[in-house]
From TrEMBL:
Residues 241-279 are annotated as: Disordered. Pfam families: TatD_DNase. This is Amidohydrolase-related domain-containing protein. InterPro entries: Metal_Hydrolase, Metallo-hydrolase/TatD-type, TatD-like. Residues 241-251, 262-274 have a biased composition (Basic and acidic residues). GO terms for molecular function: hydrolase activity, acting on ester bonds.
Length: 385
């Protein structure tokens, strides 16, 4: 039991605890423990070829069919993580077919051109347009589903070729495709390529009007610039009070009350129906950056609502604690989310969620029940708008 759990308050699970970002399908053997968990809903990310269908099946099996209540156990999210972005060929801008080797030489840095063993063990790359159409199908199949996990990562390197020892000590219970215990290679995925993969998925989220869960490591500036680019031309117009009153006067003079109502509805419908190139809501998951970019992400002219989510493991495990405390104190009440970011469902996931919820309540000076209720409301706004 951690320090924060040792205080005497019972934890108000009945108010609803929502995990904004986790990976239970990485350990399929314990997915069956989800119905017994204390958390209300898990927002379950897909990341790579091996887990998209697992996420879909888990949602299908654990959510009661025909149950339209919003109390589903699993909220599935479909997306391609930056750690696997090299496995996609960007065929959306140029259709020139390339060999597997040419593709990997092109998107990785330093160039693996003389490292045939490394290239050989990489999977045959998949076309981005195929991924986008498959993701679109999943999003259609699950009308509440999100796009995620997507993002940019400047720090990560690809895992190296499996050694014999790594192979024999491999945990058979883990869904394949992730790093597991492998040593890292020197290779990174070029930023341009990661960016193209992220942009295409953000545009898909815009087309389908779904929220997204974004991974960003040492890349907050590039992520923000990309949002600026897709937001361009759609910024919200801020009117001063005097301008708002003036506009009201003009509208009042031009039409009676009845007409006013009709016009209002019409403009809302048009806005809703127009396909937009950016997601309506964004979660910066396990946000590890400083305070400054938050102000940019929360600027009132941005047409997407940006939320920030925190996990006990990534955000409160020592090194970056001071930074995250400043960030949590700087955020508005209604933009904070909690997550476990864990790859195993069950009691450990519940404990981490309780832990981070208590930490945030303490930092914000929220009374526990009021704070847990606020976090639940925030998740509902992030997911359902
Ligand atoms: Zn994740």
């Amino acid at each position: 039991m951690t320090l924060s759990q040792s205080d005497n308050h019972d934890f108000p699970w009945e108010l609803g605890i929502y995990d904004a970002h986790c990976h239970p399908t990485d350990t399929m053997a314990v997915v069956e423990q989800i119905p017994a968990m204390k958390a209300t809903t898990l927002t379950v990310m897909a990341t790579r070829a091996q887990d998209q269908e697992l996420v879909a099946q888990t949602a299908k099996n654990l959510n009661h069919s025909g149950d339209n209540s919003r109390r589903q156990r699993i909220l599935p999210s479909f997306g391609w993580h930056p750690w696997f972005s090299h496995q996609l060929i960007d065929d959306t801008t140029s259709a020139t077919p390339r060999s597997k080797e040419d593709h990997y030489v092109d998107v990785l840095t330093p160039s693996p051109v003389s490292d045939k063993t490394f290239i050989d063990q990489l999977p045959t790359p998949k076309s981005l347009s195929k991924l986008l159409s498959e993701t679109r199908e999943y999003l259609n199949r699950f009308p509440d589903s999100l796009v995620g996990e997507v993002g940019l990562d400047k720090a990560f390197r690809l895992p190296g070729v499996w050694t014999k020892e790594e192979m024999t000590s491999r945990d058979e219970g883990l869904t394949p495709g992730s790093r597991e215990g492998r040593k890292l290679s020197p290779y990174k995925v070029k930023m341009d390529h990661q960016r193209a993969i992220l942009k295409a998925q953000l545009q898909l989220a815009g087309e389908m009007q779904r929220p997204v869960s974004v991974h960003s490591v040492q890349a907050h500036g590039v992520v923000f610039d990309l949002f600026k680019e897709i937001w361009s031309g759609h910024e919200k117009v801020l009117l001063s009070r005097r301008e708002r009153e003036k506009q009201k006067d003009v509208e009042g003079a031009l039409s009676g009350d009845e007409d006013d109502d009709r016009q209002d509805k019409k403009s809302k419908t048009t806005e809703k129906d127009a396909p937009l190139p950016f997601p309506p809501r964004v979660c910066m998951h396990s946000y590890s950056g400083p305070v400054e970019p938050i102000r940019q992400f929360l600027h009132p002219t941005n047409p997407s609502d940006v939320y920030f989510s925190f996990s006990a493991v990534i955000n409160f495990s020592g090194v970056s604690t001071k930074k995250v405390v400043d960030v949590i104190k700087a955020l508005p009440d209604d933009r904070i989310l909690i997550e476990s970011d864990l790859h195993v469902a069950g009691p450990q996931m519940d404990d981490l969620l309780e832990d981070v919820a208590r930490q945030i309540c303490q930092l914000r000076g929220w009374e526990l029940r009021a704070g847990v209720k606020q976090l639940a409301d925030n998740w509902n706004c992030f997911v359902y708008g």
